[in-house]
Amino acid sequence: MSIDLSQFFEVFFEESFEGLDAMEAELLNLVPGEEDLETINTIFRAAHSIKGGSGTFGFNSVSDFTHVLETLLDQIREGKRELTTEHVDLLLKSVDCLRALLSALQSEQEPDLEEANALRLKFEAILGLGQSEHDNPNSECADEQQAEVNTYQIDFKPYHHLFKTGNEPLYMISELAELGELETHVSHNEIPDITDLTADDCFLSWRFFLNTEKEERVIREIFEWVEDDCDLTITLCGGLFSEDDTAQGAEENNPDSKIEPASSAPINTQEVKKAVVSKAPPPATESTSIRVGIDKVDSLINMVGELVITQAMLTQLGEQEITEATIASLQEGLAQLAHNTRDLQENVMRIRMLPISFVFSRFPRLVRDISQKLNKQVELKLLGEQTELDKTVMEKISDPMVHLVRNSLDHGLETVDQRLAVGKDPVGIVTLNAFHQGGNIVIEIMDDGQGLNTTKIKEKAIANGLIALGDELSDDEINELIFMPGFSTADAVSDISGRGVGMDVVRRNIQSLNGSVEVSSATGIGSTFTIRLPLTLAILDGQLVKVAKHTYIIPLISIVESLQIDITKVSRVGKDLDVLRLRDEYIPILRLYNIFNHQGAIETLDKTLLVVVESDNQKIGLLVDDLLSQQQVVIKSLEANYQKVDGVSGATILGDGRVSLIIDISGLIKLSGLRKPGSQELIIESQANLEAS
Amino acid sequence: MISGQSELDNKIMLEQAKGVKQFLTFIMADEEYGVDILTVQEIRSWEEITVLPNAPDYVKGVINLRGTIVPILDLRLRFGLPSIEYGPLTVVIVVKVNFEQGSKIMGVVVDAVSDVYSIAEEDAKTVPNFTDSDNSEFVAGLVNVGEKMVALLDLKKTMKIKCTH
């Protein structure tokens, strides 16, 4: 009978955040003077649903604030007020403010009302004082604080059919409890013999003593819906009842309410207790959800249907006598099963895929704010917004992208004057483009600004000791330097970029998603950052390799080639690092058995297999005993029940049920450097030697 | 049947109220050790295992437990006892350990499973401070069951794996 509203909180928050996103997007489209009624209607509707929802769930800070916002929108909508840029700015700020309020409520923290109140004053100033006074609950509050504290005796005797009208006394009691100190007495004298008892009739009646500052009118309001279904008398007793009484009353109340009709008794006892004795918030339930298109679900159902048919067919075959013919159809059935499973897997993966517009949609606002701050004119172009991306990847890619876009706006694009001076359009263009390429998703962030300043980068790199004074580097190599740790060309630390969180962090974040980021730039024409990401994090194509008696998996994407070592091309650098000359590159050889501490592997280099892999633009060769099959593997976390293992990115379960570990190439390089001090430098050195030659 | 069940329930409730807990005990190097039975997920026989590179010697590796990767520790090596060859009686007790960061499913290799005892919490005696032994920190308490002494394990400390680096 009683509904726990908190179960709908998550949906409310999700919808509200969506509404705010919609409001923001529409507000950015608004041009004062030529506003479109439909746009304003959309904004109004979004604000209205948030207000309605927050009111229902009792988030008054949100609903009060949305109310003034809505009033302004309503006036604009009805043509009573002209829309100005000031209004748009204010509305955008209130979107931010609402978002902050809702996030605070979602994480069950006390929302910070300072900004909301400041903004509300501004709204009220626009709307005119007369209305604001009426809407401001603060002033109402102030009035009531001075009001006298009275004690009311409330006799509430609902008629037997109360529950049938859809009313629940519990809610009224909890509402009463919110008005002030409440003492509750339940009378259960009317409960008939068990044989005459009907579970959906109400036989209880209550006497309340309420200690409140509120007027009788407020109390009556609570019972407004049940006026015709109960006997209600409210009398003013005056005077206070003592604290002790309250506590006692609450305690007495519990055993009493246990004698309620059996069907509702357990719930009610608990609920009454909650309402009267404690108002502790329910425990936080952290859950994230995704919205999935019905077409995706439908196609999944279809696939499962096919899977069931295949399974039925196989079962039937299994019951028959085994002959040549049944074996053939059995094989056919198994092939069908493999096909079904693969389809199903792909489709299940698609559920996690969301269009990248979820990330892109935050950029119009960002660009608007930053360009205003920098006094630059910028046009933002979004392409390929429907490109789909794994939800987890999406969540993690948005921060690096924000960083790159900020950089483009701050360092890339010139000011209007500078652009006019070199004969460019005063409005700079930043383009975000997303598309699929092979098994990857590619995101490009392009600007038509001044491009990377190679001279400045080089000077800075020399000053930071990243390169030596005499080093000859190509432009691409210089551009690559911006990804080095501790590199920032921003002359002054500004609000927008150059806060010491450099491009190296961007690169590291992207690499943690198994992705890569590159830059290309032409002086005076612009620069392009290209992010490449795998489509999903949960599955990868792997090459199974054997080291001693252990099977490891190398991500196929990082394998450049596999070859048999020709011993004549191996030379030893330093104490214990072997380097293979491969065409005109030098590949350091890492002995996997050595790094992983396994005994019994092939230790001679000649004719042994070497898997050449690339990570962080660095090629290394991994010495393995044997190459096994290639297969798609589902990545499982080792950290869930164990801890991080260096050089291993995760584990998977092979076809025969055994666990196999997935090698993390960049971790492996780090590990080999750790275990043999000096070898890391040697790798770089050999690479540098090569570049010099 | 139903009344039998509820009788059992009552008994359990009564025991819980008195602070009585049930412990699963196992044998290792002729000594008996106990773990809270509520932490035990299942008992398995020893099976082929995937070795983790550069792990401490007492971490034998990981197994596939119905799709979950579960690490397996050898309790003999953990306690610094001489290891023995795994035989048909060698079992893996899979337990759920509640660490501060969250619970983890892990397995321990022991010589053999022994019995289940109900032990009142107040009967458990604290461990005398053996000065030089690291192992005393793994034991939460000692109890006498008949003639035998059972060491109750502190799983959180026992299953904590030190980083190798």
Structure in words:
The complex is a heterodimer of chains A (693) and B (165). Chain A has 693 residues and is α+β, with helices and mostly antiparallel strands. Chain A is built from 23 helices and 22 strands. Chain B has one domain: CheA-289, Domain 4 (OB fold (Dihydrolipoamide Acetyltransferase, E2P)), CATH 2.40.50.180. Helices cover 15% and strands 45% of the residues of chain B. Chain B has three helices and ten strands. In chain B, the strands form two sheets. A five-stranded mixed β-sheet of chain B has the order 8-1-2-10-9. Chains A and B meet through strand 21 and strand 22 of A and strand 4, strand 5 and strand 7 of B.
Helix-and-strand structural type of chain B: mainly beta
Q: Fraction of residues of chain A in helices?
A: 40-55%
Which CATH C-level class of the largest domain in chain A is it?
Alpha Beta
CATH architecture of chain B: Beta Barrel
Taken in chain order, the helices and strands of chain B follow as: HEEEEEHEEEEEH
Query: Pairing-aware structural class of the strands and helices of chain A?
Result: alpha+beta
Q: How many individual β-strands of chain A?
A: 22
Enzyme class (chain A): transferase
Protein name (chain A): Chemotaxis protein CheA
Modified residues (Phosphohistidine) (chain A): 48
Region (Disordered) (chain A): 245-265
